[in-house]
What we know:
mainly alpha; 0% strand; 66% helix; 128 residues
Amino acid sequence: MIMTDHLPKWTLTTLAAAAILWLTLAPHPLPEIDMPLFPHADKVVHALMMGGLLWAWALDIMRLHRAWIRPPRRLILATIAVILFGGAIELAQLVMHAGRGAEWPDFAADAAGAIAAMLTLRLLPASR
């Protein structure tokens, strides 16, 4: 039995997407911290957010169908959807003028995170 069986359908995916939208579109979603980070740390965050979204989707699929992600086409389509979601966020940042900037490197990091998550999901045994 999966611990999330009692949750409504698509809960994990919805929560992950909502958190990403808040973190990427709100003018000041988190309090300012005066802590030095490594260069381009925000790109790592972008990759982790989109990879996390794809993992949330995969877990929701597993919960709903009681099987791991088959066929691979479904995983590829979900990866494309997550990459497009990242692109839509960058476009929204461009037109919203809410203090957030749209950047190609952010979109590239989004895509890299989604693709990395897809590759790790494909490596998992099919018996799950």
